[in-house]
Amino acid sequence: EDKVVQSPLSLVVHEGDTVTLNCSYEVTNFRSLLWYKQEKKAPTFLFMLTSSGIEKKSGRLSSILDKKELFSILNITATQTGDSAVYLCAVPFNFRGTSYGKLTFGQGTILTVHP
Amino acid sequence: NAGVMQNPRHLVRRRGQEARLRCSPMKGHSHVYWYRQLPEEGLKFMVYLQKENIIDESGMPKERFSAEFPKEGPSILRIQQVVRGDSAAYFCASSPELNEKLFFGSGTQLSVL
Q1: Distance from the CA of B47 to the CA of which of A48, A90, A113, B99 falls in 20 to 30 A?
Q2: Cβ proximity of A46 and A35 under 8 Å
Q3: Is-contact B6 B92, C-beta < 8 A?
Q4: Is the pLDDT of residue A109 over 70?
């Protein structure tokens, strides 16, 4: 059974701080890893990573994957109060080389950014 | 282009009643997924449907739960004879093709009294 573990479970920082969120995984036939941000309710897509060592960036957010050590990190620099959310990491089920939206999610990291 | 629409946002049912949760995927998306988020737990896959077909229902409880995605109209997640343990947030997600990148709705919060 696929397994995704995120750490820390919660994090409290002040505006301007940099944070690093961790995601480790154990999956059969790895294909990709996804990061989502969940504010209030609807998870919104952030990144999908498939290759080791290639950093994905979007503004102050960046993510990188290490397929050898089976983990990914999500970095947020110069945090703002609007970054307060639950950050979710997920891996898709891979059936005979095909992945679809059957995702195994981690428990999430609750990030709170204080002014 | 409207996102994934779910209704109702909140649903209150008494034990033994039926709950119907609706999901309209994004325009052009024919792949629909249902997930459940129990209190203090992560999102759990329930079922994957593609127009009129159930593709993967490995995450659905064996009894009382069913899902459909008819040719016309929204996808429906139906829970019969609800129990307190069914109280959770139910999320629908869609994708335009067979891949893992999903677009989620805002969820339906089901409360069973």
Answers
A1: A48
A2: yes
A3: yes
A4: yes
